[in-house]
Design a protein that fits this description.
Length: 123
């Protein structure tokens, strides 16, 4: 795993694409960390984790490019592939498939599906 280890307050709830997904009961958020030893663009890790959290197939999600430029996102976090050293800390936040998503420089991806839960039911 890249960066920091999961906090004690996070409960592992499953794996997606070889990556453990954790749940923070206090905040209602899901967390995962990208593996810096394997080639995987952050856009792929994000897509797979959100689909797992929402319980849908990746093809059933909206196009990531509707929310953020996947190539630009991958370029910001290229250090996960081991091609470049990480310089500085920071994060990028946006909404994807009605979830608030934050990607941190240390490899942590946080998904808050609260918007998904608060969506009005279909009549």
């Amino acid at each position: 795993m890249s960066g920091t280890a999961p906090r004690d307050t996070l409960t592992p709830i499953g794996d997606t694409d070889g990556r453990t997904v954790y749940y923070d009961e206090d905040r209602g958020t899901y967390h995962t960390w990208c593996d810096d030893r394997a080639y995987e663009p952050v856009s792929t890790a994000l897509l797979m984790t959100v689909s797992s959290v929402l319980g849908v197939e990746p093809d059933d999600l909206e196009a990531l490019s509707e929310c953020i430029d996947p190539d630009a996102l991958n370029a910001l976090f290229v250090h996960w592939r081991g091609d470049e050293p990480r310089i500085g800390d920071g994060s990028v936040s946006f909404t994807f498939s009605e979830c608030a998503v934050t990607v941190y420089a240390d490899g942590e991806v946080v998904i808050d599906p609260a918007r998904q839960r608060s969506r009005p039911a279909d009549d």
